[in-house]
Amino acid sequence: MQHFKIVMALIEQGNNYLLQLRNGQQQAGGLNLVGCFGGQIEDGETPEQALIREVAEESSLHLQTADLEHIGTVRVRSERHNKPITVDALIYRTMIPRPTKVEAREGELVLWTEEEVRYKLAKLTPATRACFEQLIWK
Q1: Partners of 42 in the beta sheet?
Q2: Under a CB-based contact definition with an 8 Å cutoff, are residues 106 and 27 in contact?
Q3: Residue 94 to residue 62: CA distance in whole angstroms
Q4: Bridge-based pairing state of the strands 83-95 and 2-13
Q5: Model pTM greater than 0.90?
Q6: Could you tell me which of 1, 56, 86, 102 has the fewest CB atoms within 10 Å of its CB?
Q7: Rg of the chain, C-alpha, whole Å
Q8: CA-closest candidate to residue 126, choices 70, 72, 85
Q9: Cβ atoms within 10 Å, residue 12
């Protein structure tokens, strides 16, 4: 089974979490599920550099290293190109001011309150679900 190391941004804005519905052809995994912005770490990148790059590629947000708080790592089983994989996801939390308008460039922007996340857990990517269950609601 293949193993991947990824980074994910848990983005908070007021009472909402900014997530993305992975509904595009560009997504390698988690298709039609809702997840955090993020992706794989490329050779020569630190996790923070990878996350800043991924968030900028997937949205209109341009984060800085100082904006990121590493809150933990989760390991999950998932799928990529319809094949089972394991994933270690390094999770970073960031908060953005309310007036900031965010657009998704890949997939569709989803704004959910914590209550909505709890109610819709089955619609989350495995790593995003683990992020909430193991790191946020511990």
Answers
A1: none
A2: yes
A3: 12
A4: parallel
A5: yes
A6: 1
A7: 14
A8: 85
A9: 14
What domain range includes position 54? 2-136
Residues 101 and 62: their CA atoms lie apart, in Å, by 12
26 pLDDT higher than 60: no
| Tokens encoding 124 | 């989350």
CA distance 41 to 6: 6
Tens digits of residue pLDDT in 48-103: 999 999 999 999 999 999 999 999 999 999 877 778 889 999 999 999 998 899 99
Vertex 94: Cα angle to 92 and 100 (nearest 5): 145
pLDDT confidence band for 9 (50 / 70 / 90) = very high
CATH number for position 44:
3.90.79.10
Q: Among the residues of the chain, which ranges form H helices? A: 47-58, 114-119, 126-130
- Amino acid letter, 40: Q
Q: Which helix (H) or strand (E) holds 98?
A: none
Tally of domains within the chain = 1
**Two tokens, residue 30:** 């988690």
Torsion of Cα atoms, 69 then 72 then 74 then 80, to 10°:
30
